[in-house]
């Protein structure tokens, strides 16, 4: 039996990699997650026949039913705009599970030191390391979830925070070494886990706003690593391979995200951005010129080429369906319409794409920053809806600005710019947007969905 | 038992696979892919079941139970969220965007 179980694990690992590969292309992405899902289901059933399981089947099924059931209901009913925090919380659960596995194994070793011999020294070290990483991923993800879900104040800073964090992790590592080299008592284990959990929370607390997706992605990579480490403890190839693949893929994804924002990973982790006041506001000359939604709609209807730049504001207003309705009208009139998506528009890379896809926008109408940035000068109208920092020209012109150096969409180069905005506030970074003050920019104030609805009405009258 | 050096080889090769798979991904798939990889580390469920299955004392059983509970949440939630996101990827007639 054990041979068959091993074989199933091997097949699972292979299918996961193939599934992930399929998920990395739009046309095959859906089948990718289905493949991975089937592999997971088969591996779970096969585990019931694992030779090291001596019982507790009822408890096991109960836990699967409760955990799986709650997660299923939560994932089913959540709005698409709230996806980032759902990813955070499910990721945290994985990290917590890895840490809990480590806890069970470490307690067993502590009660029966003979087990340490069968596990081997290396597995013990990796198990402790996995426990540390898993705890950090767990508590960090929970904090990230609470923040994104609006259950917690946006950011939390105090003096010498980094030194306190450093002290916590140093003591946690010290306790980890004690656990790996001696036969630890319950006190040592409790302190170790408590410190590791505290560190994860402390890591996520000061991070706010636009940096959130980066830290979630990092915790995702952490969980992958923790799972791989516990895979060594349990001698489980599927966990080792799947965990390591996620660990490295997640690390790369984290770097890609940080790079898209022109931020170093280290400065995301060790400096404050969005939450802190950005010092003195730069004075902007001129004023913002408001206009009516109907005028804006007519302007687009008579244009040859329109580029739409969506941002988080579109997600909040749930305006994507209305926008697609308007785009269909414009396309019927012969207007060339394209969507331009900044890598960090919204709360996560690809967040906007998911929302537009939900509304029915085909993905081949949607363009990346590099693909479309040269086309703005040919556009008659650029419609900015709910985006701010990603179209702020100070990122190119003002070296003192916190946004300086971030690649932006060149909306300012198009012949006319329409900006749909709820109020006159500034973006995430708190930096004034010079785009709004340009001569060829018109501001349309109001709720995104309502404004676009009025634009549609005016286009229909033509 | 997977011996020391062999374990390192497995780690290294798996890490390269992860890099390779992600490095050619278009930006539009970043979020679904993060969610998909989030689902894949839900395989921790298998380990959690083994840990619970080996548990002897009440404490071990409690922690093992929590492990299975959390892991099942990771796997099921990760799957449903990813599936819901990818469900929305439709293509219009002109396939393949110009890269």
From TrEMBL, chain A:
Coiled-coil stretches noted in the UniProt entry, renumbered to this chain: none
Catalytic activity: NAD(+) + NADPH + H(+)(in) = NADH + NADP(+) + H(+)(out)
Top EC class for this record: translocase
Record key words, sorted: Cell inner membrane, Cell membrane, Membrane, NAD, NADP, Translocase, Transmembrane, Transmembrane helix
Matching SUPFAM superfamilies: DHS-like NAD/FAD-binding domain
The protein's Enzyme Commission number: 7.1.1.1
Topology versus the membrane: Multi-pass membrane protein
Transmembrane segment boundaries: 6-21, 33-51, 57-75, 87-110, 122-143, 163-181, 187-207, 214-233, 239-258
Stretches assigned to the NADP transhydrogenase beta-like domain: 6-457
Subcellular location: Cell inner membrane
Key word Hydrolase present: no
Recorded family membership: Belongs to the PNT beta subunit family.
Subunit structure of this chain's protein: Heterodimer of an alpha and a beta chain.
Functional summary from the UniProt entry: The transhydrogenation between NADH and NADP is coupled to respiration and ATP hydrolysis and functions as a proton pump across the membrane.
Protein name: NAD(P) transhydrogenase subunit beta
Organism for this UniProt entry: Larsenimonas suaedae
TrEMBL record, chain B:
Membrane topology term: Multi-pass membrane protein
Major place of residence: membrane
Assigned EC number: 7.1.1.1
Domain NAD(P) transhydrogenase alpha subunit C-terminal: 8-90
Keywords attached to this entry: Cell inner membrane, Cell membrane, Membrane, NAD, NADP, Translocase, Transmembrane, Transmembrane helix
Transmembrane segments: 6-27, 39-55, 61-81
Catalytic activity, as annotated: NAD(+) + NADPH + H(+)(in) = NADH + NADP(+) + H(+)(out)
A Pfam family that the UniProt record links to this protein: PNTB_4TM
Enzyme class: translocase
Keyword Lyase: no
Subcellular location: Cell inner membrane
The keyword Transmembrane is assigned to this record: yes
Main function: The transhydrogenation between NADH and NADP is coupled to respiration and ATP hydrolysis and functions as a proton pump across the membrane.
Stored PANTHER family: NAD(P) TRANSHYDROGENASE, PROTON-TRANSLOCATING NAD(P)(+) TRANSHYDROGENASE
Name the UniProt record assigns to this protein: proton-translocating NAD(P)(+) transhydrogenase
Organism: Larsenimonas suaedae
